[in-house]
Amino acid sequence: MTNTHPDIDYANKVILAPMVRIGTLPMRLLALEYGADLVWTEELVDKRIIGSVREYNEATGTIDYRKGKSLTFSTHPDEKGKVILQLGTADPDLALQAALTLKQDVAGVDLNCGCPKKFSVQGGMGAALLTDPDRLCKILENLICHTGMPVTCKIRLLPTQEETLKLVKRIAATGIKALTVHCRTKEMRSTEKALWERLREVVEAVKSVRDIPVTVNGDIFQYADIEKVKKLTHADSAMIARGAQWNPSAFRKEGLLPFGEVVRAYIKKCVDTENVFQNTKYVILCMNTEDSDHTRSELYRSMQKSKSTEDLCQIFGLMDYYRKVTSEQQAKRKTENDETENENKRERDDEDKQEGQIEKKSKSE
């Protein structure tokens, strides 16, 4: 299929990594505000996406995809052209259905071939695809041929360099637009040092097949780390994961901002988008956790005890902002409801009028 989406230049980019429960809309918007060029969604599984219904949220200005009462995905115009769907799948047909469901509101689709978590691997998704290259490549080829979207892939290193080089050559040959490599094997923990030294040869192998950008992921904690790792690995772009989780201002060329300033900016995004409180709380409790003093602080304990977004706004001195934004949202929602009711009334009046005309005509006959 001809590419119906604008092409994305994946070279020389700084990217927010896909992180489960972290990479929801407020984090993506904040990362972009701090300097990220592209943002990946958290991994969304194909079956969760399929059947979701697209809705415009008048109160927040977001596009929301819902399945029953459950929110599948939410996006905002501020990330248009910059948000990439990270897809969890083990089936070419389900992958295609899921990608097409969200096609209108994402800039591209990235196949998750790196997640080592049990729920992903047991379903044949994520890192399980690394040892099933036929299935992996079929999924990529189906997406490339039938979505009209830029398609990319994110992998981990295999145990041996020989296996890794063989795999990336096959992946590059499918026609993907870019490849991200997390410089750890699926068995390695995040606390183990990333194997940057293995990536240069991987980059060369990819470019021997097709000259596409390769993005490095693993142990990049702030903007200052990027040039060092790119020089060592010859990668074209860099993806930040835990560094952004701990402090989203990791994307700033000027350096990191203090925790208090960052968390207030994040909470504002959550208020703006009506983010689910449980997710908001989870994300801010993950911030700054590399600092053991922080996790033992009174502030951290007060965040743990919070029961609502309003509680968090109270803790961080944002009550004026909370009242202003929520009041505006309620007013927009009331206006929308009034307009809907007026439209329904007009439809009922039209139906009554038509029925009256039919009854009048029947009597005259």
UniProtKB/TrEMBL annotation:
Gene Ontology CC: cytoplasm
- In residue numbers, the region (Disordered) covers 327-365
Q: Which reaction does it catalyse?
A: a 5,6-dihydrouridine in mRNA + NADP(+) = a uridine in mRNA + NADPH + H(+); a 5,6-dihydrouridine in mRNA + NAD(+) = a uridine in mRNA + NADH + H(+)
Instruction: Cite a single GO MF annotation.
Output: tRNA dihydrouridine synthase activity
Q: Keyword check for tRNA processing, yes or no.
A: yes
Cited Pfam families = Dus
Q: Required cofactors, per record? A: FMN
Does the keyword Flavoprotein belong to this entry?
Answer: yes
| Cited Gene3D superfamilies | Aldolase class I
- Supply the name of the protein: DUS-like FMN-binding domain-containing protein
